[in-house]
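Notes from the 1:1 (GR / supervisor)

We went over the backlog. Supervisor wanted to see one worked example end to end before approving the batch request, so GR pasted a single chain during the call. The sequence is below; no edits were made to it. Supervisor asked that the structure be written out right there so they could see what the output format looks like.
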Amino acid sequence: MDYQISRDFAAQQDELDPLKGYRDKFHLPDLGREQSIYFSGHSLGLQPKAARAAVELELSDWARYGVEGHFDATNPWYSYHELLTAPMAGIVGAKESEVVCMNSLSTNLHLLFVSFYRPSAHRYKIISEAKMFPSDRYLLETQTRFHGHDPDDAIVEIYPRDGEGVIREEDILEAIETHADQVALVFFGGVNYFTGQLFDMRKLTAAAHAAGAIAGFDLAHAAGNVPLQLNEWGVDFAAWCSYKYLNSGPGNAGAIFVHERHGMSFDIPRFGGWWGHDKERRFLMESGFAPMKGAEGWQLSNVAVIGMSILKSSIEIFDEVGMDALRNKSEKLTGYLEFVIDSLAEEFPDAAIGIVTSRDAGQRGSQLSFDIAGREKDIFDKMTAAGVVGDFREPCMIRVAPVPLYNSFQDVYTFGEVMRELLAEGAG
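Structure output shown during the call:
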């Protein structure tokens, strides 16, 4: 696409956008400023307008039925999570038996590590990206210690090369091959939270399996952001939250994927709970845990229906739109954002603006991360005061994400105009 820095161009692209109507399905924040541009869906997605009615329905049924709502509610609570399975499986490219919505992200990852990180004295290493989200780093540290290993020895982190912002794929593959005799698990964020780098999960999974290791992913920044084919790629396990690109509200429930070859294997160790027990015998209250088939066998407890109702209202939109259409718009929006930032870098060379995220659209999602030669925090604070909501990550990174469901080309253009004014102030 031939991009232009003009409001008319942005407005024209919005008019041509086949997804333009979906912006009206979300509440856009009013921050009491002249303009409000929301580029923080990578941290917290916007509220679907359908969420309120979804919650009110469950509150109404609770008031009407009390405990009988488990079976008599409009959407019976006993099986509520099953309403989310098909659309969520579509989002991540899985069979329905491989996905279940439950718990929160880090909780789910720890539960999955019980099953899939089973180190021995010799094969115990975990290969991961450097600068992963802190919660994942803490997960790896505590899991390796729990199994009697030193995290500094057991965790092999792959860094970008000197002077580069993202990790080279060949460096990951080389590390897997180098540690092939010792690696137990290859564990990456599908999209790195800091740089926005999208990893080739198919290739990493194949390399892990060739080394005799398990492949798992944290998809917090990937689910609802980029097309996924977890079943086809042969990924062993994955988990993700739902409050970023999936717009389910702060701290809401997560979900897991367990490949069918594991989900039908009942000798895999796991922690049990009554909602993962054979549901035909669940209310017999008997001893002897018998896990359900598929990912549902990793459940512990009945679901938090109020939160799940918000998630349901959001992922029904994804089911309607489809990930391919979202990806198509996302690449155009992010491409325009890249063009705008590059234009600012050319106009203000002393600002030394540098995009860290890959320039290959196939190696990134909706997020671009950039720095501004030591002025990032100052610029970010002024950007926020001017009505542009992104986020800042220490020590030097501004992260912005135009989300295809509710952001527009005019949002990107306005972001550029705000940044131009701020950079001009600094130049003066």
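Supervisor's comment: The chain has a mean pLDDT of 95.
Batch request approved.
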